[in-house]
């Protein structure tokens, strides 16, 4: 098994209004010698914005802003900007997050050239009603039933409101592959993948064709006991000579509720829609008290990494209340993954 070093909690909530209820699920990127961390900050009534700090090393906070850097501005995100991830492609930073309007939770994009000024590009995942998704998924044969089970129409809401299929965990690959931008997204219970030339392609016609061939776009499905309920994207993929390391989250149900663990798989370098291998066990799961007790019990939710030599430092939300780091060896992880190729 891969050896894990738990480096502990690095960020906690403060008394500031915007983060008084918790901090969690950070996007992390190293640029110009500095590690930048954009985190979900939760205020009362579960309203989220994105806070920001700079690290002097991988686990020490150097500077922390007292105001959020990305806040809800539009109707589609009026209840929160949640769970950011970040990559840099072609000299442009892509920060994806989940926008939540109180009913719909959809993948959204903001871009920046300097990590300071952000331009919101809006929702980039499909706005597809549940019933339409149901019709399209039924054309995919045997996958239809599990998608129905996890994506039931939320009948508690007013019928006059547009209600769309939840599509979260949008994560870009950190470079173009064969000239295309690839990104992962998640409609439960699987992880899907999409490829485009540019963001403008993500229009209703694109998504209609995408769903007509939906089965082809599923890159990972639950396989092992620790991820049997559903899975979702975690950190931006890490490029190696053997393929893309994908650290994702796996969920299984217990008598005490869902347990979220950090998991790992390997995707093909030139064809990332192909799974090469995955670990048959979680990288790490909730074991410490601060991972087991919080706003949501039993959660290790990985969302960002930085690489230092042979070490991967994984940043994750712990029990939806605080941010922690765990470290492991890239070479050791690859050795384990390559023992279990498909």
From TrEMBL:
GO MF term list: glycosyltransferase activity; hydrolase activity
Coiled coil (residue ranges): none
The keyword Transmembrane appears for this protein: no
Record Gene3D superfamilies: Glycosyl hydrolase domain, family 43 (2.115.10.20)
SUPFAM superfamilies given in the database record: Arabinanase/levansucrase/invertase (SSF75005)
InterPro entries assigned: Glyco_hydro_beta-prop_sf, Mannoside_phosphorylase
Family: Belongs to the glycosyl hydrolase 130 family.
UniProt protein name: Predicted glycosyl hydrolase, GH43/DUF377 family
Species, as recorded: Chryseobacterium ureilyticum
């Amino acid at each position: 098994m891969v050896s894990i070093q738990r480096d502990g909690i690095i960020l906690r909530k403060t008394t500031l209004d915007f983060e008084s209820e918790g901090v969690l699920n950070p996007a992390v990127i190293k640029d110009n010698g500095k590690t930048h961390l954009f985190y979900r900050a939760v205020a009362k009534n579960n309203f989220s914005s994105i806070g920001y700090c700079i690290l002097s090393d991988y686990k020490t906070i150097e500077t922390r802003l007292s105001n959020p850097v990305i806040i809800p501005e539009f109707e589609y995100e009026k209840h929160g900007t949640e769970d950011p991830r970040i990559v840099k492609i072609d000299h442009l930073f892509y920060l994806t997050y989940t926008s939540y309007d109180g009913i719909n939770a959809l993948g959204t994009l903001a871009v920046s050239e300097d990590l300071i000024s952000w331009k919101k590009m809006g929702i980039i995942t499909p706005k597809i009603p549940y019933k339409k998704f149901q019709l399209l998924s039924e054309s995919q044969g045997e996958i239809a039933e599990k998608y129905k089970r996890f994506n039931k129409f939320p009948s508690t809401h007013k019928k006059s409101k547009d209600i769309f299929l939840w599509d979260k965990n949008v994560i870009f690959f950190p470079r173009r592959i064969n000239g295309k931008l690839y990104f992962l997204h998640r409609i439960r219970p699987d992880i899907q993948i999409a490829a485009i030339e540019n963001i403008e392609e993500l229009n209703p016609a694109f998504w209609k064709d995408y769903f007509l061939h939906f089965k082809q776009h599923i890159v990972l499905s639950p396989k092992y006991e620790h991820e049997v309920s559903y899975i979702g994207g975690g950190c931006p993929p890490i490029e190696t000579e053997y393929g893309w390391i994908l650290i994702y989250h796996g969920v299984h149900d217990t008598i005490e509720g869902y347990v979220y663990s950090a998991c790992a798989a390997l995707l093909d370098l030139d064809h990332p829609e192909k799974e090469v291998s995955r670990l048959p066990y979680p990288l790490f799961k909730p074991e410490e008290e601060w991972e087991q007790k919080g706003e949501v019990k039993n959660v290790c939710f990985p969302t960002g990494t930085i690489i230092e030599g042979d070490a991967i430092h994984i940043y994750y939300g712990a029990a939806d209340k605080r941010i922690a780091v765990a470290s492991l060896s890239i070479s050791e992880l690859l050795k384990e993954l390559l023992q279990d190729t498909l």
